[in-house]
Design brief:
This protein is mainly beta. Helix content is 8%, strand content 37%. The chain has 2 helices and 12 strands, in the order αβββββββββββαβ.
Length: 183
């Protein structure tokens, strides 16, 4: 019975070894520390010092075991309260969040919010830079829509079937946005 009691234990991260993917875990109930136990994880994410973790030991002491991972507690509360949300917390304010019901993917990184939904991308940021393959900036959406809705072309048909080209638009295209720029 004593053997099984010590196989699965809850402790607190005491130290992290990022290059090894290992941690030290303090078990305050017995004032013991398991040193350099590996994280059982397929994602690289080191827990914070003092974060509670669940450990599994192989039954022959604390020399051979694994940290199964952290869990929600008073020290690490849930970031959201919605069963339809899958959220990967990357840092305090940085996360990926997917709403399974609304089918919306949200990426939040230091005051930039990107949402992808039904083939539409919404970016909330002070400035948007187009990638290195872009050769010119773009007009803002409302400005471009208004121009497309209202611009006209002169035309003259040269044959009865109406085959010919129109002239260039009578009004100049809208200016490139100062907020959407080419890098």
């Amino acid at each position: 019975m004593n053997l099984a009691k010590n196989m699965i234990r809850v402790g607190q991260v005491n130290n992290v070894y990022p290059s090894d993917g290992k941690i030290d875990v303090l078990f305050a109930d017995k004032d013991e520390v398991a040193t350099k136990i590996p994280l059982l994880n397929h994602e690289y994410h080191m827990p914070n010092v003092e974060e509670p973790v669940l450990c599994l030991f192989l039954g022959n002491g604390m020399e051979q075991g694994f940290c199964l991972g952290s869990f929600y507690s008073e020290v690490t509360p849930t970031p959201v309260n919605d069963k339809n949300i899958y959220r990967k917390q990357l840092d305090d304010d940085t996360y990926l969040e997917y709403n399974k019901q609304q089918k919306v993917l949200k990426v939040n990184v230091e005051q930039v919010d990107i949402q992808v939904r039904n083939g539409r991308v919404t970016i909330n940021a002070d400035e948007v830079l187009l990638g290195t393959n872009a050769s010119e900036g773009v007009p803002l959406g409302n400005q471009l829509k208004q121009w497309l809705d209202n611009h006209t072309h002169d035309y003259s048909w040269t044959d009865a079937a109406g085959n010919d080209q129109t002239s260039k638009p009578n009004s100049p295209s809208p200016s490139v946005s100062e907020k959407v720029k080419v890098e």
